[in-house]
Design a protein that fits this description.
Blueprint (H helix, E strand, L loop, with lengths): L18 E9 L1 E13 L4 E7 L3 E6 L4 E7 L9 H4 L4 E4 L9 E11 L2 E8 L6 H9 L4 E14 L11 E15 L19 E9 L21 H32 L6 H6 L4 H19 L14 H17 L7 H4 L6 H11 L9 H10 L10 H21 L8 E2 L9 E6 L21 E6 L2 E10 H5 L3 H29 L33 H12 L13 E6 L4 H8 L23 E4 L11 E5 L7 E5 L7 E7 L4 E14 L5 E4 L3
Parallel strand pairs: 5-10, 6-10, 9-11, 12-19, 16-17
Antiparallel strand pairs: 1-11, 2-3, 2-9, 3-8, 4-5, 6-7, 7-8, 9-10, 13-14, 15-21, 16-18, 18-22, 19-21, 20-21
Helix pairs in contact: 3-5, 6-8, 6-10, 8-9, 10-12
Length: 683
């Protein structure tokens, strides 16, 4: 890109007010940013990022072979937020904008606040991205890079700067965010360069530079001395030729490194290698090291060309049968051409086809004999479970999971999901108080030590389960609907069991580690006192809701610090549902000013109603308030690691003429802290 303000050596510079302007084009640029894992909202699948704070970074002008400083002016007047408002700012994987598979989500909101640019990103719920989203939630993926285009720069020359800068300062006074990417290694803001790996659209840029205020008279050309064979003009031509050759070599180096990284699937390395002045040979070594690192992380040589993992015909057949069986038990199941060939076949017909394929002669077998052979046949290497038993187990597992997920028990809305437990040992949950209060430092600069106190609750996993049999008779009768109902009922039963376990904590009102019942009206200054229960029950009303809210806000931590806990959920039995919505739903319009509810949707103390019929068995009048589990601990639950939700196992039984199927659930729940819970026995 030629200097838009450059002048010929012999030109007269005339003092004049205003500025010189020129338009040119530049590619998309990137800045490092940061994500806040703690802001992840699991329900909305959103996370908050600060994608710019306008710091100055060093960049390199490849066209003029010089360094400059770029400053983004982060104000509502400078940043064009129209793409955010239009919902056009996408969330990408490593700035890859060439395919829809690289789209991770969308920026649903963007704003400027105190010189910082923020955004709320809504991530995709596609199954193939579940691992990436989980890594973002856990803080494993935490680096973000924002792509932007600049419409207008204000340029201050190095000689005109008064802030001590030694290079030109380019202030982006009008610019537009284009996309936000999650990246493995963000651009270094201290040595960032314009990305050469991004080959795409060019964006028009207006350059503005103030005119110099000093008038220069033209200088007379100097003659050459006798004996001097080299003229100044010749020297200038030689210098220009050398500079052009250097720029051409640099451009070729950058292109070679970019192509090398892209060819091996590590395009994100290119920018860093180019900035680091790596040779092509050094870049080739870096690419090999990155491929070796990926291979080691994945446990295999995934990047060795010419080696592919293929599926044998046996597995292909079983997968096709599995698809056909899933379609019979769930019309919403996906179907491929592989599954279509088995679509109209019964269980016995599928079994006969499979046995014939594996070399077993089935001619002359009666239906019972054939069913027995299908359930007993094992491939070489299989120790205990038949091929068809594995097939049915896979179908059962998927159907079980769907039934479990569809049930959607209400406790998941307000209780906190803890990390899965690694074993069945007793788990201790430490409930830390807030940090000690800060105290004034004396004139000698001495700081005093504070202390942390904690409370501790313990609990452990409990295993639940049942066994049923899939017999030869069921296969002969092609009783897949009974199989479906049974497995689906297991999933629903597991969800109900979890629901009962959590809500029984509220209804049982057992003692916590401090010996006080979870809900009691005793003052917190007394041992075991929780002050989260009304002395006399009242029906749901604005007055009673306010009493409960006030009692929660006045709760103190373990060091008597003010917590200011606010309720978020109103938990009621089914008989109180209509009354609860009267004070929380925006659909109910009060007839008088006294009926206006701040607890309704949109209010400053809005409550979300959770209706649970299980509570009616204990009390049809009692109701509860619960805080957001992200603010303070309430009730937490967990599963066994590797077995989130119910699982199904199968084996051929001697006592059962067929296949025994076992459904198992490892689950536990425990009240951790009383401060985020309140109970009113109702009236």
């Amino acid at each position: 890109m030629p200097d838009p303000i450059a002048a010929a050596p012999e030109a007269r510079h005339v003092a004049a007010p205003g500025a010189q302007r020129q338009q040119n084009a530049m590619p998309l640029q990137h800045r490092a940013a940061m994500v806040q894992p703690a802001s992840f909202n699991a329900e909305q699948n959103t996370v908050r990022v600060m994608w710019s704070e306008g710091v100055r970074v060093r960049r390199y002008d490849w066209w003029n072979d010089r360094v400059y400083e770029e400053e983004l002016v982060v104000t509502p007047e400078s940043v064009d937020m129209s793409r955010f408002e239009a919902g056009a700012v996408q969330v990408l994987d490593s700035h890859n904008g060439y395919g829809v598979r690289s789209i991770l989500g969308i920026a649903q909101r963007g704003w400027i606040e105190n010189g910082q640019a923020w955004a709320d990103l809504r991530l995709s719920r596609r199954e193939e991205l579940a691992g990436i989203v989980q890594d973002i939630r856990d803080g494993v993926i935490r680096d973000v890079s924002a792509g932007y285009s600049v419409e207008r720069y204000e340029i201050t020359r190095a000689i005109d700067r008064t802030d001590g800068g030694t290079v030109d300062l380019w202030r982006a006074v009008r610019w537009t965010p284009q996309e936000i990417s999650f990246v493995p290694v963000p651009a270094d803001p201290a040595a960032g360069t314009r990305s050469q790996a991004q080959q795409g659209a060019q964006f028009p840029v207006e350059f503005t530079r103030a005119m110099p205020a000093i008038q220069q008279e033209p200088t007379m050309p100097q003659g050459t001395q006798a004996g001097n064979d080299t003229t100044p003009a010749a020297d200038n031509q030689a210098a220009l030729a050398a500079a052009e050759a250097a720029r051409a070599a640099e451009a070729q180096r950058s292109a070679d490194i970019t192509e090398l990284c892209a060819r091996h699937g590590v395009a994100q390395l290119a920018a860093g290698l180019i900035r680091g002045n790596s040779t092509v040979d050094a870049a080739r070594s870096a690419v090999l090291e990155e491929l070796a690192r990926r291979d080691a992380a994945s446990g295999g040589h995934t990047n060795v060309r010419g080696i592919q993992t293929v599926t044998d015909e046996t597995e292909t057949r079983l997968q096709g049968m599995e698809e056909a069986l899933m379609l019979r038990v769930d019309p919403r199941a996906k179907m491929t051409e592989n599954g279509n060939q088995y679509r109209g076949m019964s269980l016995l017909e599928m079994g006969r086809d499979y046995l014939e394929f594996r070399g077993v002669r089935t001619r002359g077998m009666d239906r019972m004999h054939l069913a027995g052979q299908v359930l007993q046949f094992r491939s070489p290497g299989m120790m205990s479970t038949s091929d068809f038993a594995n097939l049915l187990q896979n179908v059962a597992t998927k159907r079980l999971r769907r039934g479990y997920d569809v049930s959607a028990p209400s406790y998941r809305r307000w209780a906190r999901e803890a990390p899965n437990a690694p074993d069945f040992k007793s788990m201790s949950v430490v409930n830390l108080a807030g940090a000690p209060d800060l105290r004034q430092v004396n004139e000698h600069g001495e700081f005093t030590y504070g202390s942390m106190t904690d409370g501790k609750e313990t609990y452990s996993l409990i295993t639940y389960g049942r066994i049923v049999a899939f017999t030869r008779q069921a296969m002969v009768n092609d009783d897949l609907r009974g199989f479906d109902r049974l497995v689906g009922a297991f999933g629903d039963s597991a969800a109900r069991l979890e629901n009962r376990t959590v809500y029984s904590i509220l209804t049982a009102n057992a003692a916590l580690a401090d010996t006080g019942n979870l809900f009691n009206a005793t003052a917190v200054t007394t041992a075991g006192g929780h002050a989260n229960l009304t002395s006399s029950g009242t029906a749901i009303s604005l007055t009673s809701l306010n009493v409960g809210r006030t009692m929660m806000r006045l709760q103190k931590g373990l060091q008597s610090e003010e917590l200011n806990v606010a309720p978020r959920y109103l938990i009621v039995p089914a008989t109180q549902e209509m009354l609860a919505y009267q004070y929380t739903s925006a659909n109910y319009v009060p007839t008088a000013q006294s009926g206006v509810s701040e607890f309704s949707s949109g209010g400053r103390s809005a409550l979300e109603v959770v209706v649970e019929a299980y509570l009616d068995a204990s009390s049809t009048t009692a109701w509860y308030l619960a805080a957001d589990s992200a603010q303070v601990d309430t009730v937490e639950f967990c599963h066994l690691e590797g077995a989130t939700g119910p699982v199904i196992e199968s084996e051929m039984g001697f006592e059962v003429d067929g296949m025994a199927m076992k459904c198992r659930l490892d689950f536990a729940a425990k009240a951790i802290d009383f401060r985020g819970l309140y109970k009113n026995v109702g009236a």
